[in-house]
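User: Sorry, folds how?
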Amino acid sequence: MPDYVPHRVISLKGHAEFSERWLQDTIAGDPTILGLGDLVVRDVERRQPRAGRLDMLLSDPDSATRYEVELQLGPTDETHIIRTIEYWDIERRRYPQYEHVGVIVAEDITSRFLNVIGLFNGFIPLVALQVQALEIGNQITLSFTKIVDVMPLGEDDDDDSVFESTDRSYWLTGRGSELSLALVDQLVQLVQNVEPGLVAKYNKHYVGLARNGVAMNFMTFRPRNKHVIAEFKNPLTEDLTSRIEDLGIELLAKNRWNTYRLVLSPGDVEEHSALLVDLIRLSRDAYGG
């Protein structure tokens, strides 16, 4: 049997060595420890117009989502919640092209303020994370527990009018390449075997699918330089996830809609066509096609 490693919970608030700045630096060094996905740091101590400083601004490079993160040692309080919502609102107004999520991180999210946060959720996308510092021998480790999550909202991908339409040349000179667009072409060919008549529809933030100009985005593509991120809109299942992992295909962390996002490189479409066709069919069926 594995050996038991004794540990104890320590309070960061008022600690001589492990301050709020230490917590901020630790998260900045590896934002994935928050459990919100493969995020990157865009800014720390971000100055807000006519307000204070946002502790951290994180973003998901594979979706148009930004996270406004406020840290507090000890229990959360009214000012912490108000400050988080204020900074979230400032950022979403300044950068409306992104989705924005307010994130509260505190050592103790009390039941009183948990109820308050819960009232806002559904109207304001908020995540509340409770952080614990554990002392194990001479080492300190952090544990983050999601107490409040963003309430899932419906997508309106059928209406591409809210997105700026582009063309293939936009992606060739932007984030994509000849290589990644060739992968998109291969995937669209597989889609056409399942749902004839669909073609690629190029938008500013992703490549979707359409028939006679009408969007049918049960699958979308985000071309990068050397690969494509293909998103399938069918729900996650243990069997399907295991099948993907057994084949060695890179599966990105869950997004807020719990859909499959695969990183596909040259050769993957030919090698894994059977799996991809199954995913396409499941996504089409889940979409209602």
User: Anything to note?
Assistant: The helical segments are 20-29, 78-94, 111-120, 168-173, 178-194, 238-246, 268-271, 273-287. The radius of gyration is 22 Å. The chain has a mean pLDDT of 83. The chain has two domains: 8-148, 160-287.
